[in-house]
UniProtKB/TrEMBL annotation:
The organism's place on the tree of life at top rank: Bacteria
Keyword vocabulary terms for this entry: Oxidoreductase
Domain Pyrroline-5-carboxylate reductase catalytic N-terminal residues, every copy: 5-94
Protein name: Pyrroline-5-carboxylate reductase catalytic N-terminal domain-containing protein
One Gene Ontology term, aspect cellular component: plasma membrane
GO molecular function: cupric reductase (NADH) activity; ferric-chelate reductase (NADPH) activity
Length: 227
């Protein structure tokens, strides 16, 4: 059977961790950043053996499912037309403690992924791989067969695209936890107890339910969650 191809834009901590487990899971992984492919060859060969470094343009042209593993402040450097018709897995976070405050992303009239979807209006944006740290993602490759799978939450507005991404999450060694529409992705962002979670699906669901029930959740997040 032909290998399924997945593209990863961003060859930093998260991008390389995903490329590594993707390649180990039998996917054809194409990875790119702003650097020329030749400069990525060495780090990719060490940290994500089996993944193929390409230029961003080549990678985008060669796959229909692309993970954005770049800083949130950079997605508008990509021309939406280049990603038309593709599924975008939005792994980006508005993480002000690391990236600095941003007026647009500080307002909660739309979540970061809803803004990404509005920008890439002819693509299908699915939010996933946001809440778990790259080192925990990477650790899946050392799980034994008896290790209980950890969950990755996934949110999106197009059920078929969510289903495809859930399948990838499963193939990568995690349990997908579908949490509803893209707007529910607010539950995965910094400030939520789910951010940083490396938990089983039932525990992750419990964290979500508890937070939605809490005063803090009510005040900030729960109002954005479409139950
Ligand atoms: N680190 C984590 O544990 C983690 C977990 C979940 C989600 N995330 C999210 O994932 C994203 C990446 O985080 P990270 O920690 O992996 O960051 P990082 O280590 O700083 O890597 C960022 C990567 O993005 C690339 N990049 C930046 N602008 C680009 C552009 N316009 N086009 C193509 N590539 C571009 C950089 O490439 P150059 O070197 O060529 O500039 C670099 O390879 C962030 O949004 C973060 O919130 C991170």
């Amino acid at each position: 059977m032909a290998k399924q191809t997945i593209g990863i834009l961003g060859a930093g901590k998260l991008g390389l961790a995903l490329a590594n487990i993707g390649a180990q899971s039998g996917y054809e992984v194409l990875i790119a950043s702003r650097k020329p492919a030749e400069q990525l060859a060495l780090p990719v060969s060490i940290l994500a053996p089996g993944a193929k470094p390409l230029s961003a343009e080549e990678m985008i042209a060669e796959t229909d499912i692309i993970v954005l593993a770049i800083p949130l402040s950079k997605y508008q450097e990509l021309p939406p037309i280049a990603l038309k018709g593709k599924i975008i897995i939005d792994a980006m976070n508005y993480w002000w403690e690391v990236d600095g405050k941003d007026k647009v992303f500080s307002t909660i009239d739309a979540t970061s992924s809803e803004r990404v979807q509005a920008y890439f209006s002819d693509s299908q944006v699915v939010k996933a791989f946001n809440h778990m740290g790259y080192h925990d993602i990477q650790a899946v490759s050392s799980y034994s067969i008896d290790t209980e799978r950890k969950a990755i939450a996934v949110a999106g507005d197009q059920p078929e695209a969510v289903e495809k991404v859930a399948r990838i999450i499963e193939d990568f060694g995690f349990t997908p936890l579908v949490i509803g529409p893209l707007a529910n992705g607010i539950m995965l962002e910094p400030g939520s107890p789910l951010f940083g979670a490396n938990e089983t699906a039932s525990k992750l669901q419990q964290l979500m339910d508890d937070f939605a029930d809490s005063d803090k959740g009510h005040d900030f997040f729960a109002q954005r969650v479409n139950q």
